[in-house]
Sequence to fold (173 residues):
Amino acid sequence: MVNTSSQTAVEELQGFIAGNPDAREMRKALALKLMYQDYSYEAIRQILDVSTGSISGWKQAYEREGLAGLRLKHKGRISDLNPEQREAVLQWLQTKDRWEVGELEYHLAEQYDVVYESKQSYYDLFEAAGMSWKKTTQVNPKADPQAVAKKKLKFAGYWQATESRLKAERCES
Fold:
């Protein structure tokens, strides 16, 4: 039989689960809900594929902080650029039509002593500036000019043959 405090916890956790789109937080709440419904740690571990240590930690956090203890603490990495620096970089990026990622990397390292581990951070800055990082360079730096010329020639031949065939079909109609 579920006691009143357990029943209250189950109802509170059910409301949290129903109104929470974050799967990680929902999983924590569901584990605790099952625990308060007298499921064993082993059963919860098997159902949700979590460790008993995680369940125990979530229970302690919930008992200490309530639903706030189930919320994710990590909200993403804080940017290495402060808001004023970021705005200055975005304005700087908008001064030209095309940029190289290496040019942005150099500028951030030289001006702000910021070097990101992931290229995605640089791409995010291009996007925030309203630029597509995919179109930041004039040409593909890995393009082989001879292969491109050969392909253009090949396609020109296809177009000419197709155009001739279509003209012949129109004349027959």
Notes: The radius of gyration is 29 Å. The chain has a mean pLDDT of 81. The chain has three domains: 4-70, 83-135, 144-173. Residues 127 and 133 are 7 Å apart (CA to CA).
